[in-house]
Amino acid sequence: MLNPLAEVFLPSYMKSLESDDKLDNDKVDNLDKGNAFINKCTHFCKKYKKDLLCDVNVDTLNIKINKVGLVAQDKLNDTEFKNTIEIHNQIVQSGYPNYLGCRIPVKSGINVDFFRENLIDYDDEIICEFLQFGAPIGYQGEMLNEGSSKVKNHKGATDFHDEILAYLLKEATYGAIIGPFDKNSFFCHFKISPLNSVYKKDSVERRVILDLSFPPGRSVNDFISKDVYLGERVQLSYPKVDDLVGIIKDKGGKCLVFKKDLKRAYRQIPIDPGDLHLVGFQWDNKLFADRVLPVGLRSSALICQRITTAVSFMFYKMGYMVINYLDDFGGADTVDKADEAYIALGALLDSCGLEESKQKGVAPTTRMEFLGITVDTVKLTLEVTSDRVLEISLLVQAWLRKKKASLRELQSILGKLHFVSTCVRPGRLFVSRLLNWLRSAFPSNVVGSGHKIYRKIPVEVQKDLLWWHRFLSSYNGISMMSLEDWSSPDEIFSSDACLEGFGAITSNQYFHAVFPSDITKDQLHINCLELLAIVVAVKIWGKHFWEKNSDLL
């Protein structure tokens, strides 16, 4: 999955430095002891005895670490920093995104020419423009003129000082950030957002986040639409495990599954240089700004998904099948072709200039975990670990004792129930009312304060949670894949209902009627009324349906 702390693609200007293993003691002696940030970088590197070679170009700082020892120099190298500021100001003053106006190419490891050559017939070819000139973050509205000194980093950052420092060193090494600098060098206001970090599963590192949703109501994300990007309506949808099952169905039982994972996907994708003033942050009284997609930006997932979907399209044109969920690529193929497909996917990512996380890749096998679900092509099962089942079961029990819940709490349980529903298809019915409650109880204008606002839990939601409690208490975490190959139907019928009446249609027959008073007086839920419409239709046309293969719409 997305790994925001892993290394980014090594810039070409650094590759020539890899062979330089000489220790320059003069540079160590000339270290500017007065620069607090440099001193802390030096302290961190010595403390953890980093066994690596890197060149940290943070515009006012060059730090070099090699296997022999630490080399740091205080020589100021402002040229690239000044050029970046000038480019930013030029783009902002043009009034257009870089790809429409100035069209100044950005630096990245991505092979833009390869994308252009292979996406000529692709319906989302504009992503090539984003890769060459930087992706606009989608900010709409006037810049908020608030004091930067008022912004404080969250405890998830301040309590993990060395981890954040390591993150900054890494990001600077690969040109993903600009800084440190002492004051705003842009001609417009420099928006500073707080840093945070969260625990990462199966890793000693922490996931560093730029909280662009803070402060609620006045944050950068508040001015980025969830539904519109660059004037076009968008609806971000991710592939599901069901889609991987579909590939398995196409390739046949006992086929081999495989996956590839991008290394730090967001941080390989450049943003429009004209947006740099919107993605600033502060550390040790120094200012920085992201050059790439921040983890914490509302539009990052949309942009990343569009780019990896384009990679899947190229892979499909090569004769293979794969699905992509942000930085994860999962595929399947027959035993005789799976190795070939796996190697081809790695070669494609390399040709695109996208660095993969080698240790997270899974070579062709009959059993693999993808998106948290274990897929077995021999047993044809989807499996959730017993620990996850117990975790979700305990959460549901806690909810059954609740009277009220916040938006964040609701989003948390919805995510976990949706996860189980990936394997348990009937469970999706018992998630829908929680989703409806989410939309009605927490409209978009209160989302920013969702952790503070509590709503009373409706009775129907409590009933659905009770169903989940009973189900999870006996669920062993294993479900069979749905591989049925349904033939085309001989007959299709459709039914519907409202609070007052119902009806149905099939072929050249139809009916409609008003509900009798003994039905309406009970004020049944609309789901019950729709079910009654189906029952009546089956009662009327049951014999006819029995003789044919019918589908209900």
Automatic annotation (TrEMBL):
Annotated InterPro entries: DNA/RNA_pol_sf (IPR043502), Hepadnavirus_pol/RT (IPR052055), Rev_trsase/Diguanyl_cyclase (IPR043128), RT_dom (IPR000477)
Note the superkingdom of the native organism.
Eukaryota
Give a Pfam family name. RVT_1
* Ranges of residues in domain Reverse transcriptase: 217-375
Q: What is this protein called?
A: Reverse transcriptase domain-containing protein
